[in-house]
Automatic annotation (TrEMBL):
GO terms for biological process: 'de novo' IMP biosynthetic process; adenine biosynthetic process. Gene3D superfamilies: PurM-like C-terminal domain, PurM-like, N-terminal domain. Residues 182-355 form the PurM-like C-terminal domain. It is found in: Cytoplasm. This is Phosphoribosylformylglycinamidine cyclo-ligase. Coiled coil: none annotated. GO terms for cellular component: cytosol. It comes from Actinomyces glycerinitolerans. GO terms for molecular function: ATP binding; phosphoribosylamine-glycine ligase activity; phosphoribosylformylglycinamidine cyclo-ligase activity.
Length: 383
């Protein structure tokens, strides 16, 4: 290299856009929140290269299965960024990741998170992680590790994205799923808290094209657009694990579990996600008229002239989780959910496909699963 090719001044990592000191400050700000999630099973301190958890208790399992899930919160982060409110998006992440593990009946053992950003702003990163940590604490899961990556030149200074992963454990012969579902089972819906964390590309497009600002007051919401769109995802982990323990305690024959399957209603809507936990030869018959669709979904529909079929294939429409249960367990599930503060109702039933002629919108073969189908009947009731 000739002298003329040499830089005029030394180029440091900070000059290239990465501020390691800011990263260290962010870690200091978040340490207390993360430490509050630790359980007695956690080994070591915050800040190690890898988190460790003592799983000696798994020796008591006959055949422990590890369940794992990873996810993000999609373009909902754009709402958090626009409002400069970053301490709720973490609950969305925990809901998307850990509630997918609970669907198979697994108890979560640990969670990790990952934040990519254009510039580390310590308080912002600490707010995000604090939201993750508070949600982890609420569901009794240690936030065992994480990473914050600064990507100058790839992301703008105010841009960030979040992702997470979790691991849980379930006894093999007590795992929930399509293999347990049978005709005659009852579908119990557990209410969502709002949009949760799916379909925000559609929602944001509708709001943008309508020219609505995030600080616009909407009578149907009783608050602003931004407040409604940032409502955190409801967490179902504790209520579901409690219901499993109460309705199907350890001494129940695994072949006779009364909670058969759970479906987390995320991307794809109610029909696509419920179909994933049904065996071939069955159809879940869902009555759209059994609940009132919350206002936010109808406002999105009317504001963007969104067809109902598209809406129910994108958003949860008020149903965040579905429990497929034996008929004699339905009342206990309803009562347990309500006692935990989660509205619940009977959504429909499972039928033998050989004896059933679909009468509504039939959804099957979704998410790569060749299983049963879901027949969506009737008309939605609007708030």
């Amino acid at each position: 290299m000739s002298q003329s090719d040499a830089p005029n001044a030394p180029i440091t990592y900070a000059a290239a856009g990465v501020d390691t000191a800011a990263g260290d400050r962010a870690v200091e700000l978040m340490k207390a929140s993360v430490a509050a999630t630790m359980t007695p099973a956690v080994v070591g301190e915050v800040g190690g290269f890898a988190g460790m958890v003592d799983v000696s208790e798994l020796r008591s399992y006959r055949r422990p299965l590890l369940a794992t899930s990873t996810d993000g919160v999609g373009t909902k982060v754009a709402i958090a960024q626009a409002l400069d409110i970053h301490d709720t998006i973490g609950q969305d992440l925990v809901g998307m990741v850990i509630d997918d593990i609970v669907v198979v009946g697994a108890r979560p053992l640990l969670m990790t998170d990952y934040i990519a950003c254009g510039k580390v702003i310590p308080q912002r990163i600490a707010d995000i992680v604090r939201g993750v940590a508070q949600a982890c604490a609420a569901v009794g899961t240690p936030l065992l590790g994480g990473e914050t990556a600064e990507h100058p030149g790839l992301m703008g200074p105010d841009d960030y994205d979040v992702a997470g992963a979790a691991t849980g454990v379930v006894e093999a012969d007590r795992a929930l799923g399509a293999q347990r579902v049978r005709p005659g089972d009852v579908l119990v819906a557990l209410a969502s808290s709002g949009l949760h964390s799916n379909g925000y590309s559609l929602v944001r497009r509708v709001v943008d094209q309508a020219g609505w600002s995030l600080d616009r007051e909407v009578p149907e919401f009783g608050r602003t657009v931004g407040q409604e769109l940032l409502e955190p995802t409801r967490l179902y982990t504790r209520v579901l694990l409690d219901l499993i323990a109460q309705i199907d305690p350890a001494d129940v024959d695994p072949a006779e579990l009364r909670i058969r399957a759970l479906a987390h209603v995320t991307g794809g809507g109610l029909g696509a996600n419920l179909a994933r936990v049904l065996p071939a030869g069955t159809i879940a018959v869902v009555d759209r008229g059994t609940w009132v669709v919350p206002a936010v979904f109808d406002v999105v529909r009317r504001l963007g002239a969104v067809p109902w079929d598209d809406l129910e294939s994108t958003l949860n429409l008020g149903v965040g989780m579905v429990a497929v249960v034996s008929p004699d367990a339905a009342d206990a599930v309803l009562g347990g959910a309500e006692a935990a503060g989660v509205p619940a109702w009977v959504l429909g039933s499972v039928e033998d496909a050989a004896d059933y002629a679909p009468r509504g919108r039939l959804i099957a073969g979704t998410k790569g699963v060749d299983g049963g189908g879901v027949d969506l009947l009737g008309t939605y009731r609007i708030a």
